[in-house]
Amino acid sequence: MFTADVLIQLTIDGVSRGAMYGLMGAGLALIFGILGIINMAHGELFMLGAYAMYFATMVLGVPAPIALLISTALMFCVGVAMERGLIAPLRARLGSRWLVDGYVLTIGIMVVLQNLALILFGPREFGIAAFWPGRQEFGDVVISNERVLILAGALFTTGALALFLKKTNLGRAIRATAEHPAAAQVLGINIERIYAITFGIGAALAGAIGSLLLSTYPAYPTVGGEVLLKAFVVVIIGGLGSVWGAMLAGPLLGLIEAYATAFAPGGWQNTITSLLVLAVLVLRPQGLFSRQVTRP
Amino acid sequence: MTALLTVDHVNKSFQGVRTLTDVTFDLEPGRILGLIGPNGAGKTTMFNVISGIYSADSGRVLLDGRDITNRSPARIAGYGVGRTFQVARTFNDMTVAENLRVALVNAGLSGREERRRITDMLDRVGLAGVRDLVVSALPDGQKKLLEAARAMMTSPRLLILDEPFGGVSAEVIDLLIHIIRDLVREGVGCLVISHDIVSLPRLCEEVLVLVEGKVMTRGAISEIRNDARIVDAYLGA
């Protein structure tokens, strides 16, 4: 028997989980929209963020909010360094023919980061029970504090990203570069700088989510794989290269997963998600929330 | 008078095919030069070399005596070169005002000064009424106008316009000619590619003719019109 309380519970669970998927997808879409490559190492940036959060809070004893900021800033720097040190030289060497090589490069980065984590930390999981133990009760609706924290973090990050892209000069320069790089350049925008910053922002988003979800997804070398899959689903549903599409598709995916878990027989959750992806690819390949595929 | 723009023996090839061969010309400040020639003559390639989108294989491009050859487009824009494209490359997901604001990202202006400059430009080009409209909703003619306005927002010393009259209504053409003439009176140099043989003479008196990547001739439109070689080049004779 599914009462209104259960539906509310499922909705909150789905939206909070999906908002995180949305942000992962937004980072992936941002990088694709600007650089034109699918960053296969995006899950590993999530993984690094999770490790950073674990060691900052559990080993160094840094308070969680400050650890979150440190992890996010650190991952921004990792992203910028990856773009400048690995991706930019490849782009400079190959010119317009760099995209396939760039894609393969990110697969290489993924493998290297996974194995580096395995060598440094071993296969064990580094996780925590909860940053904020306890729960909130609203009548019969019970929400864990951790869920509230995740939802608040996701909403804050989504809002901050939207404001940044919409209201700041750098955000406008990123959007302009995504739509017409040559037109942005002739207006004085240094698109090499935009590429690096965008990759840094994508990495920072992945790192922030890895940090926030440490209680749900503990840090281990291949944790990024599952999260990357969710991000792909979100990006396909929202529209390849559409940041706004990904941010909307995330909660939609979260809701579908939450309702499927409750209403469909066991094991159908992934099947329903896969069918949705197939339907979008066949019926609306540009995505549900995108007018057209954005190309660099 | 020192030339604002000097193009000095520029060559450019793509995969062995020569698109510009030894192109040489100059432009003084406060002058408009038309760039004409049949399709595939290398006009847009020339613009792309000047604005840094393509690198020249050899030769030099000077702006006010400064060598800007093969500098990045962003740096060349910073030196004072503004341009438009053959098909307007407006930022269609942004509003009209946001498009102009992108041109000011490096200007270091206060928010109030940015708004003032944008309002002035919108008034100047007659787009004030669509200020907050998303650009994808605009007709092509207004997109052309917006793109020209955006190029002007960078306060260029050299403005290069690629087919500014293509697909544009007679009213917008009149307005564009008026605006460009105003800018040129202020000392800006202007290079214009146009196939519009009716509108181009209203804008400039002198044209440079490119044929198969080479400068065929330069002169007054009235003289060029009667040049048999140019008629042949256009008709493919």
Automatic annotation (TrEMBL), chain A:
Keyword hit for RNA-binding = no
According to its UniProt entry, this protein's organism is: Ancylobacter tetraedralis
> What GO biological process terms are annotated to this protein in UniProt?
amino acid transport
Q: What is its main location?
A: membrane
Q: Could you list the residue ranges that cross the membrane?
A: 20-41, 53-82, 102-121, 148-165, 194-215, 227-247, 267-283
Query: Which family does the similarity line name?
Result: Belongs to the binding-protein-dependent transport system permease family. LivHM subfamily.
Database matches in Pfam families: BPD_transp_2
Name of the protein described by the UniProt record: Branched-chain amino acid transport system permease protein
Single Gene Ontology MF annotation: transmembrane transporter activity
Q: Which InterPro entries match?
A: ABC_transp_permease, BCAA_transport_permease
Localization terms from the record: Cell membrane
Q: Any one cellular component term from GO for this entry?
A: plasma membrane
TrEMBL record, chain B:
Q: Which positions fall inside the ABC transporter domain?
A: 5-237
GO cellular component, alphabetical, reads: plasma membrane
Which terms in the Gene Ontology molecular function aspect does this entry carry? ATP binding; ATP hydrolysis activity
Instruction: Keyword check for Nucleotide-binding, yes or no.
Output: yes
Record's keyword terms, sorted: ATP-binding, Nucleotide-binding, Transport
Pfam families linked: ABC_tran
Origin species: Ancylobacter tetraedralis
Q: Which InterPro entries match?
A: AAA+_ATPase (IPR003593), ABC_AA/LPS_Transport (IPR051120), ABC_transporter-like_ATP-bd (IPR003439), P-loop_NTPase (IPR027417)
**Family annotation (SUPFAM superfamilies):** P-loop containing nucleoside triphosphate hydrolases
Q: What is this protein called?
A: Branched-chain amino acid transport system ATP-binding protein
